[in-house]
Design goal:
By secondary structure, this protein is mainly α. It is 82% helix and 0% strand.
Amino acid sequence: MGFAEEAFAAFRRGETEVVEGLSQRELERARGAGDAAGEVDALCMLARVAVRRGDLTGCQELATQAFEVAAGQADRALRRGPVHVLAAVARMRGDLEAARSLFLESVALREEAGLAELVVWEQLNLGYVELESGDVGRARELFEGVRRYAREHGVGDLVPYGELASAVLAEKDGDAARAVRLLAEAERALRERGQVLDPDDAEVREALRARLGTTLGEEGFKAEHSREG
């Protein structure tokens, strides 16, 4: 397993300090070896560490450094990671136009490289941008595509994210009880995989839990959450 795979797997498990250590060592190695791809990967992982710790400014600075390194190389594929992280920061800051533009750029880069699964992950992020911009129909189309892809291709890591997106849509549709059950399914899927949500999606979950708790009350929320499905 290479650095990127090892670090990302640890990130998904919530092992932030492990990711930071791996990334610092990889950054030193890559800079010493003149390995631009390794440097970009390490900077992007450090940016993810920063955003998980709530440091959006630090995340943006690291992702910008990564983009500058990538932009100096002939291989456009190196820009994928930095563009994705910059898009996520823009979304978390509420700059939806910048987020949409960057996510679309990230989709294009992933399509160029023939990375169909990574395109779907970015469509999930685009769905939230569209939802937050008020286009529920477009968000629904994107989210349903994510769930369908996860089922048809057996991409287990996508399952909790698809269920969370469906929970958000159920709440939008006025079905708070179903939203809680879908949220419970997302959380169960995470537990089964020993994973935690990415920071932007974790924000979505916490905000959704708070709203649903207010709508249904504590006992109502607990009752639906225990049912799932």
